[in-house]
Write a structure and sequence with these properties.
mainly alpha, 3 helices, about 90 residues
């Protein structure tokens, strides 16, 4: 298991990359879908804040290893959903 600080850095890095990718996709696409791009950007910020808070506060009753494994899996799912929505811009 990685340290919590490293997990937070990884989440911040991934979310900032997604954020910049979404901005670039909205600027360089011929379709002007500003509402969709704004919704994606908002969802990226919400996901980032949610997972950073979840790292700091482990759910009681769960082992740390299983908790962080579930956390990583759900984060990967959210990232793939956001990536798909960026690709559809």
């Amino acid at each position: 298991m990685a340290k919590r600080r490293q997990l937070k850095k990884i989440i911040n890095c991934i979310c900032s990359d997604l954020f910049s990718e979404c901005i670039a996709a909205s600027l360089y696409s011929n379709n002007k879908k500003n509402d969709e791009a704004n919704a994606i950007l908002t969802s990226i910020i919400i996901v980032r804040n949610d997972y950073i808070c979840r790292i700091s506060h482990i759910e009681p009753g769960l082992k740390a290893k299983t908790y962080f494994k579930k956390l990583k899996e759900s984060f990967c799912i959210h990232v793939s959903e956001i990536t798909d929505s960026i690709a559809n811009l």
